[in-house]
Amino acid sequence: MGEKRVIGIDLGGTNIKVAAVDESGKIVVKEERPTEAPRGAAFVLDRIADMARTVAQRAGWSWNDVTGIGAGIPGFLDFEKGMIEESPNLGWKKISVVEELNRRLQVPVVVENDANVAALGEAWIGAGRGHRHILAITIGTGIGGGLIIDGMIYHGANGMGGEIGHIVIDPQGDRCNCGNRGCLETITSATAIVRHAKRRLEAGEESSLQEVAALTARDVFDHARQGDAVACSVVGHMTETLGYALSLAANILNPELIVIGGGVSKAGDILFKPLYDSFSKYALARVCDAVAFRPAELGNDAGVLGAARLSMLASS
Amino acid sequence: MGEKRVIGIDLGGTNIKVAAVDESGKIVVKEERPTEAPRGAAFVLDRIADMARTVAQRAGWSWNDVTGIGAGIPGFLDFEKGMIEESPNLGWKKISVVEELNRRLQVPVVVENDANVAALGEAWIGAGRGHRHILAITIGTGIGGGLIIDGMIYHGANGMGGEIGHIVIDPQGDRCNCGNRGCLETITSATAIVRHAKRRLEAGEESSLQEVAALTARDVFDHARQGDAVACSVVGHMTETLGYALSLAANILNPELIVIGGGVSKAGDILFKPLYDSFSKYALARVCDAVAFRPAELGNDAGVLGAARLSMLASS
């Protein structure tokens, strides 16, 4: 078999990213368009197919040279059937993505949960290069989790492997989208950081955050760096809780590496230092000795790169 | 290669069990002798070697027919070097078990953590038959944990994979042997059940347990079954906590099966029913859907059988 030329697809609730990726992990061409999920699955699948053909063409690849397509999708998948069981973000249920894309593109298609795909991307050519056992989390609207074991995505029994965002930390806590209360993501996601800060501000606490118009998690970290007490307290609670949750996962998984992704992961020491302090307080000493923490390196490209890698592994 | 005839060794802090095991998982001959760990590592290793030759002889096997030896050892191991880093139960540090047994027995030797070995035994011919992803815990003096992924023992980065006993549940809780406070095993081990019951009795609570001379975890379950309020409360706290802890592990691992071993696992419905109720309250619905709970089946033989299997896998 000649060099692999694959198309990596990162299907999100807001945008679709599609890239032509070569075997070395180089993105030759990338496109991004809005998902417009409310227009229905057929519309979205047509758009993806069109984007795939477009990036291949712009990369100067004949369609016959494309060896495969990988796609990361937000939601619960049936891997054997190549089917989305349910994607709350897209409003999809029981969509045979592999079959639908296959029909449109006549190329082997592999699908995977988006958090797993991002983890695979980081393991391949990002923060996880050279490591076998990796726990990757993404701090965003929720807390995504992907698990790499022996260099491969770990699915578990039915595709839920690595779903650390929904471990319950505080049974009396805020209601989570999953139906439970106090899941990790209700405390440590970017959304939760903003919600917690707003609550403190609404309670009338004095803070430089009062002046920020449309508050983001990044603002909270920025103001904490400048010493604002409310921002420091919100960040403190977030890092203490996330460090604790990662200690639970690490005592069980004994990973070599924990990769933290999402916008918040760019906050640097103000995130990573207290996070590791909390982690090391709760994790077994030998587990601490074995693990490194690293920010994700691939940013918004983790999805398309991981999806491309998925296709390469499937055809190797 | 002909039929495998292996020796499985289960080295415990109190007793050594050694068995001649055939390829079907049948124990042909088994021996048990006290460990007498205070007499030193050389004494214990000599005793193991002697027991291995004895069971082979009693099984009617010529020593040349023995294809390998597997050993389960309580403690932290360096698998690549075949070395015990540290075994608090045995009082051993830096003992090259593989080399030492090899020299005494001239047969290939594989060593493994005892909880992992028990998990492998159950996966092979016990409660876990036919399952790929298994979390096995043993409720005893502590809470041992072993993880089977894709049918193989999962070690993690440095042999700590599956150490669920030391996830911190209550940072203000009782001091654990590991140095932390409120580890799962300080709340849900057999030792902890007895400690909690005794505390309630010492505080003067009325209970049928007051009449029991040398209280065991089994007594607590027996009296709970008869409706004793203190026993019910202790069992309730234990099952609520263990169910919660298993939900954390299961959301991350998405196992097909959770095997519960140790003496307490024979308690039946009074353990398993509230345990599953607690688990399903906290775990994701899809994770619950995929997992079954089962008591371990191999009892005291899990160790020698798992150790035998370990040797078979190593030579296959």
Automatic annotation (TrEMBL), chains A, B:
It is an enzyme of class 2 (transferase). GO terms for cellular component: cytoplasm. One of its GO terms (molecular function) is ATP binding. It comes from the Bacteria. Pfam families: ROK (PF00480). Keywords: ATP-binding, Kinase, Nucleotide-binding, Transferase. One of its GO terms (biological process) is glycolytic process. InterPro entries: ATPase_NBD, ROK, ROK_cs, ROK_glcA. The keyword Kinase applies. Its EC number is 2.7.1.2. PROSITE patterns: ROK (PS01125). Belongs to the ROK (NagC/XylR) family. This is Glucokinase. It comes from Collibacillus ludicampi.
